[in-house]
Amino acid sequence: xxxxxxxxxxxxxxxxxxxxxxxxxxxxxxxxxxxxxxxxxxxxxxxxxxxxxxxxxxxxxxxxxxxxxxxxxxxxxxxxxxxxxxxxxxxxxxxxxxxxxxxxxxxxxxxxxxxxxxxxxxxxxxxxxxxxxxxxxxxxxxxxxxxxxxxxxxxxxxxxxxxxxxxxxxxxxxxxxxxxxxxxxxxxxxxxxxxxxxxxxxxxxxxxxxxxxxxxxxxxxxxxxxxxxxxxxxxxxxxxxxxxxxxxxxxxxxxxxxxxxxxxxxxxxxxxxxxxxxxxxxxxxxxxxxxxxxxxxxxxxxxxxxxxxxxxxxxxxxxxxxxxxxxxxxxxxxxxxxxxxxxxxxxxxxxxxxxxxxxxxxxxxxxxxxxxxxxxxxxxxxxxxxxxxxxxxxxxxxxxxxxxxxxxxxxxxxxxxxxxxxxxxxxxxxxxxxxxxxxxxxxxxxxxxxxxxxxxxxxxxxxxxxxxxxxxxxxxxxxxxxxxxxxxxxxxxxxxxxxxxxxxxxxxxxxxxxxxxxxxxxxxxxxxxxxxxxxxxxxxxxxxxxxxxxxxxxxxxxxxxxxxxxxxxxxxxxxxxxxxxxxxxxxxxxxxxxxxxxxxxxxxxxxxxxxxxxxxxxxxxxxxxxxxxxxxxxxxxxxxxxxxxxxxxxxxxxxxxxxxxxxxxxxxxxxxxxxxxxxxxxxxxxxxxxxxxxxxxxxxxxxxxxxxxxxxxxxxxxxxxxxxxxxxxxxxxxxxxxxxxxxxxxxxxxxxxxxxxxxxxxxxxxxxxxxxxxxxxxxxxxxxxxxxxxxxxxxxxxxxxxxxxxxxxxxxxxxxxxxxxxxx
Amino acid sequence: xxxxxxxxxxxxxxxxxxxxxxxxxxxxxxxxxxxxxxxxxxxxxxxxxxxxxxxxxxxxxxxxxxxxxxxxxxxxxxxxxxxxxxxxxxxxxxxxxxxxxxxxxxxxxxxxxxxxxxxxxxxxxxxxxxxxxxxxxxxxxxxxxxxxxxxxxxxxxxxxxxxxxxxxxxxxxxxxxxxxxxxxxxxxxxxxxxxxxxxxxxxxxxxxxxxxxxxxxxxxxxxxxxxxxxxxxxxxxxxxxxxxxxxxxxxxxxxxxxxxxxxxxxxxxxxxxxxxxxxxxxxxxxxxxxxxxxxxxxxxxxxxxxxxxxxxxxxxxxxxxxxxxxxxxxxxxxxxxxxxxxxxxxxxxxxxxxxxx
Lengths: 824, 357
Fold this sequence. Notes:
The complex is a heterodimer. By secondary structure, chain A is α+β, with helices and mostly antiparallel strands. Chain A folds into six domains: 2-39 and 158-184, Phenylalanyl-tRNA Synthetase, Chain B, domain 1 (2-Layer Sandwich), CATH 3.30.56; 46-154, CATH 2.40.50.140; 203-411, 3-Layer(bba) Sandwich (Phenylalanyl-tRNA Synthetase, Chain B, domain 3), CATH 3.50.40.10; 419-491, 2-Layer Sandwich (Phenylalanyl-tRNA Synthetase, Chain B, domain 1); 507-716, 2-Layer Sandwich (BirA Bifunctional Protein, domain 2), CATH 3.30.930; 738-823, 2-Layer Sandwich (Alpha-Beta Plaits), CATH 3.30.70.380. Chain A is built from 20 helices and 40 strands. The longest helix of chain A is centred in the last third of the chain and has 17 residues, at 802-818. The mean pLDDT of chain A is 93. Chain B is of the alpha+beta class. Chain B folds into two domains: 9-96; 118-353, BirA Bifunctional Protein, domain 2, CATH 3.30.930.10. Chain B has helices at 9-22, 26-36, 42-49, 55-95, 118-132, 146-149, 185-198, 239-254, 307-313, 329-337, 344-347, 350-353, and strands at residues 136-137, 143-145, 178-180, 203-212, 224-234, 260-264, 270-279, 296-305, 321-328. In chain B, the strands form two sheets. In chain B, strands 1-4-5-9-8-7-6 form a seven-stranded mixed beta sheet, sandwiched between helices. A two-stranded antiparallel sheet of chain B has the order 2-3. The N and C termini of chain B lie far apart (92 Å). The interface between A and B is large, with 141 and 116 residues.
């Protein structure tokens, strides 16, 4: 919201500089997002008349312009072309200092001397227009040599662009901001000049007002203004509006906007001649009704929206013939608009239910300055004070204006400001410091709260401008926030709390860090690929699976929640490969989603209005996906990396087991499951990326094999699924070990890991079993291969004798035999 | 009367189908294509001979020939798909590797240097600071119901404040009921509900995680980003404690010459609410372009838990009070590593990824 410093100064004495005030406003939570200096630094700029325009030899972008600013011809080089001989333009002569501190000096361009600069609006910091020079003839009747500030009747001012928070309905106007400043700086807040009714004629004799739906319209006042003449506003009114970013239209409309900016009450002027029976009535719109709003759009009313909890209610203002004149509090219709011939005005000033306005405005995608204020809560007591101010302003351009006696004032349901019991201790308990009672009283009084001192507590009642203040304990927090805010957050002492409970990570978080460290240590770069992807990408791997879709994606290819990280990671790799940087291992830690309809295990949670529904949400699965893409990487490299991970994580009991049906995305004949032998749980897969996926993602050119590990981190982190090695370790024997090399002709269906595991169980003497060679060959029976293991035997208390070793060897062979493996 | 050129069409089609069925490789099929349906096929020569017929007869014969061609082409496409499947199957079979038989010791493993991601690195540093201050760490889901993301946080339906979080809604039945979480704050609600159910208050936790907002990507916005949220619920917790924790964190993470300050702000779930700013890390407070000459950078939001939030989760506000704070992990990362464009984070260029230690 743009607020003029000059305007603020009418409400409160503010000798401070703009910079000082900016700090105060920031500290009050009225954050200044920008400061604009109007009409400053223009003192040296004068009105000049263009007398001649000459081409400059060899230059097509610039011309030589001869101007007169009252002291004879001046030659100036100029790049603009939006003016002609005879026009008047602003001239910054040599020595002038423009806004922003730019000093004009004599310059030589293409051998021509330029004695000053002709200015565009942007160069004068008047607006953003930089299309050409500011041609003054369109704005005023210029006089050569006159100072620009005088010519344009500019009053130097500072405009603060203030960001108003959602709990500050009172701060959407000059008076509200001034009230904060006055309270903080302990100064008096002045009231603007107000008019009084000046006609003996009763308003009721001329006009009517009614509320059909008191729950939506809390108050409807209608004032009758007669002998109106629609003209232009006085220049100070136009300037005020412009300084707040609004366009002046006519005195009747401008006064309404001015009052809204100044006091926060939107009002709406109707041409009384266009309102049947000169009666305004507030009621719910009926299904089927339409209204063409001032922006020219025909709107279907009372049509239920898609928004959560939206009943489709619209509040409309109708006339005596029940014809819809406007969408209350949001925008009027064209039929009763003020026109040049308007002589009688019905001025509506009302209080509408904030939620109704918020929903309507959202549903119709129609925001206006008025709806912004109504949906936050306009002071229900403000209406007639705002009208009095309106009349005072309009009277300046229409001295004969008549304001009829006893404006119509119909009441519906108005929220009662809560009355709160604020105990002395409440403030200290929340803020951590006692604030002197005098400060509390000064702050609350300054903000318009009424405070009654009782024996043990203060009875605090919020003003109508503070509909954000709630009842009960919430309201106490609201009031204490106001005390803290005006007292100054920075004056509140800081304190370091201490508690006996220890901080730390849980097992899952520690495991995640550990796993990341292991994979990174092994040479992986951690990537972050998008959670949202396209249908086409989803189809690459999971064509027939239900997908979780976003209702309102930013782009069509970001509309589906990913169900795998493989596609994204391969894509990320492919981009690097195209840059010649494909020799990498990439890893991603992230969440993938399964549609609640496609899983036996959706996340059940409460939702809907009041949390009364039980919703099935997507199953979220944290996964760790690794793509190994270095030269010569393949499924074997992936198995090797997995073995490092398994060893470092103490997952001794996990076997790499071939699968007949590989999950999509994996190479169908180069994939294996990672299975925990104890729990039987599946911890993930290892293998290669399916070449078809690589083709699809990289548009075909034959590439390299990509190793792949895709881990289910939820399973890894669950001690019931992933069996961790016991904490107790073995101290290696001090006695020499015996080493046996045993090669077994093993049926293809017997897993090498299972066989090794079985061999490990043979005896306490078995220290380690390592696969060191695999042989396939014509000498072996069909469907078998030879697995050669290195078996290390030792005892903690003795050197093994030959006999023991032989016995152990026999046992190993026997156990292998139980799986169908025969010593070669 | 001469015999129709199509007199033997049925037999010719049968012959073609037999030849197609006999094709056993994709190469054979490619070689035979011209003689089956192409220029050298009997169908092509029949087509030429139709020219001699009367218009009426030509039309009928043309249709008949068209149908024959369709039958042959369908058969050829079918055979092609069959052979392609077989080819892929046999190449997959040739490629088969029993991964259980991989001898790990034989795998060539060239040295490569890995790096953690910028976000996870930053998250770990932030967590470590808070763990040192006595906080535990909690994770939460990325898809949330409106109850957890909004209403329990004192943002009822149609409340204008919902507009502050430009949400992605998830299409699961009821409109505007399921969202990609727009902040980590719903995890606060889960934590408090759990603590009330287990009777395990107090809570001192930070909650890092990924969030989503409908922001068009540019140098300072991505539609997904990371936040870390802090929550303390304990006896006798005050705004002074909040300011103290923020200050301790700021110095611990950014360094002893960086401090914090609070100014009033608005969040529906805290009251009083504050924005917190830290000394500009570029100019160290003297004023520069990054901090718009103020010497301060806005980092996040915080405040005392709103009584309405405590009520929603069933925490007795007479006995317990608390505060919450939250800020961007990505923003901290950007500030520390002077990354000028957030989009670098999702581009996954290995030259970017390889810089974080």
